[in-house]
Design a protein that fits this description.
With about 850 residues, the protein is α/β, with parallel strands linked by helices. It has 5 domains: about 5-115, Rossmann fold; about 145-205, Dna Ligase, domain 1 (2-Layer Sandwich), CATH 3.30.1490.20; about 215-230 and about 250-345, 2-Layer Sandwich (D-amino Acid Aminotransferase, Chain A, domain 1); about 515-655, 3-Layer(aba) Sandwich (Rossmann fold), CATH 3.40.50; about 670-840, ATP-grasp fold, B domain (D-amino Acid Aminotransferase, Chain A, domain 1), CATH 3.30.470. It has a 7-stranded antiparallel sheet, sandwiched between helices. A 7-stranded mixed sheet has the order 17-18-21-20-19-22-23, with helices on both faces. The protein has a 7-stranded antiparallel sheet with strand order 28-27-24-25-26-29-30, sandwiched between helices.
């Protein structure tokens, strides 16, 4: 039953990397909103500089420490929480929770573990105990053992035969999986896995490559009430990591008996583990026999838990928080925009959602680009439509496959290479599948080669037919209607027909079917739910009403799918813009396609549009919503220029689009960050750059250090600030600006000037305590209180030194690279040290 918790410690997920984007921070943001409803105090540990949640908790209750067992114990001993919540910190937080139980910290401190009991937690950590538990309730699992050497591995192979899968036992988000078909491959896999493990052991299991991968996301309360939120179907079979697969929600090809069997299995597993909250379970289904294996049980928040929430509009994180605290499904009171029945009613969908991965192969070219059991995607985009075809094309339209608003051609791939890629897929897989259909490969043949269900080939064939009709009938109203039906945007038509987008929109304006927007909500229109999340479709009824002309409306255009470089920092930046606009009295609208984006959290905006970030789609939303201002976070100069051609709206690009930017950051050793408003130049702090690597060779590239005065000479700051005021021309430079220097024996050489980057703006905010994104937003809205900024900077104490260390994905992606550039960063982590201690060191 529900308990009256006074203080809850939330364990964060640490820095982002492959398999760990912003989904945990998004879940945490919603969890914080739910916990506040109960009156409990929140304590939070995380060292991710791009965490929005960390800035939503009172600063005194946030511990910017590495997320590990020792630091969590330290926080517990200081704060004495009466509950720990590890379920939104990923596998790392779950493992720490298990350590807290095993070391008897929970018992000694009389702390409750939320979400899953300590005994059941042991089953999640120990694969053999989980298999034994599942076997007891009649669920089939894959044969698997823990081995320490090749001899033990071969003993297992003699029992089950090849192929087998080898994977490391890692305390991090290691996604490495190695399919072995012979002894040589097995030797190589064991050697690679043991290098990645922390206990000199790895797991080996029988392979079920070629089975369908089906995923189920459910919720359960302490009374045993439970329901299925959504089923997810990977288009790609087992053998390609789910994180690299195209995923559909709801499931598309299951027979009713198969769906019901997996639903029942999900409930049985949740009951056996005593789950309170959410649980994500993965299955391998033999479509020939309808038999299945349970492949993974995750009684915590995952990437695809978030996908289930996005596809249904069901607020999983918010509801699960109450369930973990002991509330029943019938007791939970949702925000007024939801029906009172929503919490305890299985969602149903009147639309299809498709997720397409984004890979980093252009940024790190030495990676093996074949899709296999090792996850390589750094992000994903989603498309939502009334039909499978429409959703597929929207998702592709939003991905890196279509940077110029059209799908790239693979027509030059020769026949042998085409067949090779069908069997050994690359990132361009879906384009290769479509090319094979164009060339006359039969659906039966393609299904046999790829192990992809025939259903998807029929749908891709329909897309090709639609595309051919549109290409063969340029500039006609019928072709525009067909294109819109299949998800082609006006920008795509403009490219295909060599027209301006205005010409395409003019042709489409004659159609009886104009763009409308449908709501993503959990009852498919049966109940009065209002998630305020929309997608476009060309139908008769529009479910999104524009705001009153008395309202101030701001449209914020998100970055789309996560990529290396600005990556999660860009979504942090976008979320902070939304928060500021809301506080300054604007109705806020976000447009984004990243399923893991915190900027799509329900509490952050008044409306959300899951639409491709392309000119035509943006103009459709502008035509409906009539915003007073449009914000473009990130390096979006081309999009900004294009939008200005079609509208006279106030378009704000952040960081600001400076007229001149000359620098060589490779030569910079130090910098001064300043804030410029009009002719006023306000120094903020000093920066020191470093390319040092630690003794464990963790591929550190940049270390950004803030201190006052600088580490080397007491007079440095005064000298550099004087230089800065002489260099800066406020006619050209506004907002957050960084002036860079190269330290030499006889002084400092000026080497460049640039806007403070998105990544460093987050770092600056965490370190100084001044919300610099909010400051920029207010500046460009004409609402900046200069006195307040001066007071905040005056009170900023420079007694500690902070460092932001870049995290690179080279190890996870099995790249040979060691040093990286800012364009290859996957995330970062923060550390703080007292300045006096730093000088002594």
């Amino acid at each position: 039953m529900k308990q009256d918790f006074k203080k809850i410690l939330i364990i964060g997920s640490g820095s982002s990397n492959i398999g760990n984007e912003n989904e945990y921070d998004a879940a945490c943001f919603e969890t914080i909103a739910a916990i506040r409803k109960t009156g409990a105090k929140i304590v939070y540990i995380d060292n991710n500089p791009f965490s929005v949640s960390a800035e939503e908790v009172q600063a005194a209750n946030v511990y910017s420490l590495e997320v590990n067992f020792a630091n969590v114990v330290s926080v517990i001993e200081k704060e004495h929480p009466d509950a720990v919540m590890p379920t939104i910190g990923g596998l790392k937080a779950i493992q720490i929770a298990w350590q807290l139980y095993e070391s008897e910290v929970l018992e000694e401190q009389q702390i409750s573990l939320l979400g899953i009991g300590p005994q059941e937690l042991t089953k999640i950590i120990d694969n053999q105990k989980l298999r034994d538990s599942l076997t007891e309730i009649g669920e089939k699992t894959i044969a698997s053992v823990i081995i320490a050497n090749e001899e033990e591995a071969m003993d297992f192979v003699r029992e089950v035969g090849f192929p087998v899968i080898v994977k490391p036992i890692s305390s991090s988000h290691d996604t490495s999986r190695f399919i072995c078909n012979n002894p040589d491959e097995l030797d190589d896999a064991i050697e690679a896995s043991l290098k990645r493990t922390y206990i000199n052991r790895c797991s080996i299991e029988q392979s079920i490559v070629g089975y369908k991968e089906i995923e189920m996301v459910g919720v359960r309360d302490s009374l045993g009430n439970k329901m299925l939120v959504s089923g997810l179907e990977d288009m790609d079979p087992i053998g390609i990591h789910s994180g690299d697969s195209i995923i559909f929600a709801p499931t598309q090809t299951l027979l009713n008996k198969e769906y019901q069997a997996l639903r029942t299995s999900t409930f049985s597993i949740m009951d056996s583990l005593g789950i309170k909250g959410t649980c994500h379970i993965q299955f391998a289904l033999n479509s020939q026999t309808s038999s299945y294996f349970v492949t993974k049980v995750s009684p915590f928040f995952t990437r695809n838990t978030n996908l289930a929430a996005k596809s249904t509009g069901y607020p999983i994180s918010y509801i699960s928080t109450f369930l973990e605290m002991g509330y029943s499904l019938t007791e939970i009171k949702l925000p007024s925009k939801y029906s009172k029945y929503t919490a305890y009613m299985e969602p149903t969908s009147d639309h299809v959602l498709v997720k397409v991965p984004i890979w980093p192969f252009e940024d790190i070219p030495d990676i093996d680009q074949h899709l296999n059991t090792v996850m390589k995607a750094v992000g994903s985009t989603i498309g939502v439509g009334r039909t499978v075809e429409e959703a597929i094309l929207k998702a592709l339209h939003s991905s890196q496959l279509s940077p110029r608003d059209i799908l790239p051609s693979t027509s030059k791939v020769d026949e042998d290479e085409l067949i090779n890629q069908l069997i050994h897929p690359l990132a361009s897989r879906i384009l290769i599948l479509m090319e094979a259909l164009r060339r006359g490969f039969s659906i039966d043949e393609l299904s046999e080669l790829t192990k992809i269900d025939k259903f998807y080939f029929y749908k891709l064939n329909q897309l090709l037919r639609g595309q051919k009709y549109v290409a063969d009938h340029p500039r006609t109203l019928k072709a525009v209607d067909v294109a819109h039906k299949y998800g082609f945007g006006d920008g795509m038509l403009a490219e295909m027909w060599n027209l301006s987008i205005n010409d395409v929109r003019a042709i489409g304006s004659e159609s009886a079917n104009q763009v409308t927007f449908k709501m993503v909500e959990p009852s498919a229109g049966e109940l009065n739910d209002s998630t305020d999340t929309f997608y476009s479709s060309y139908e008769m009824e529009n479910e999104s009403e524009s705001y009153s002309t008395d309202d101030k409306v701001a449209l914020v255009i998100g970055r789309g799918g996560n990529q290396l470089g600005p990556n999660t920092a860009a979504d942090y930046y976008t979320a902070k813009i939304l928060l500021t606009l809301k506080k300054t009295g604007y109705r806020t609208i976000i447009m984004n396609t990243n399923p893991n984006a915190i900027s799509l959290s329900p509490q952050l905006s008044d409306k959300k549009y899951i639409e491709p970030i392309q000119l035509g789609n943006i103009l459709n939303i502008i035509d409906l919503e009539h915003p007073n201002v449009v914000f473009l976070p990130g390096n979006r100069h081309f999009l900004s220029t294009e939008l200005k051609k079609f509208t006279d709206l106030n378009i704000v690009l952040l960081p600001p689009d400076q007229k001149i930017a000359k620098y060589n950051d490779n030569q910079a050793t130090n910098a001064i960050d300043v804030f410029i408003d009009g002719t006023t130049v306000t120094p903020i702090t000093t920066i020191e750059f470093s390319n040092a690597k630690d003794s464990n060779n963790k591929q550190l590239k940049y270390l950004y250090n803030l201190s006052e005065p600088m580490l080397h000479w007491e007079t440095d700051t005064e000298i550099l600030v004087d230089t800065v005021t002489q260099i800066i021309n406020t006619d050209y430079w506004q907002g957050l600006v960084q002036i860079m220097f190269n330290r030499q024996v006889d002084g400092y050489e000026f080497v460049g000037i640039r806007p403070v980057t998105i990544t460093e703006t987050a770092f600056l905010t965490k370190t100084t305590g001044v919300d610099w994104v909010a400051t920029l937003v207010k500046k460009y809205l004409g609402k900046l209180d200069k006195t307040q900024i001066q007071e905040q900077l005056t009170s900023f104490n420079h007694k500690r030194r902070s460092t932001m260390t870049s995290v690179f994905p080279f190890s996870q992606l099995q790249s040979n690279q060691h040093d990286g550039t800012v364009d290859q960063e996957a995330g970062a982590y923060l550390t703080f040290k007292n300045f006096e201690e730093q000088k002594k060191a």
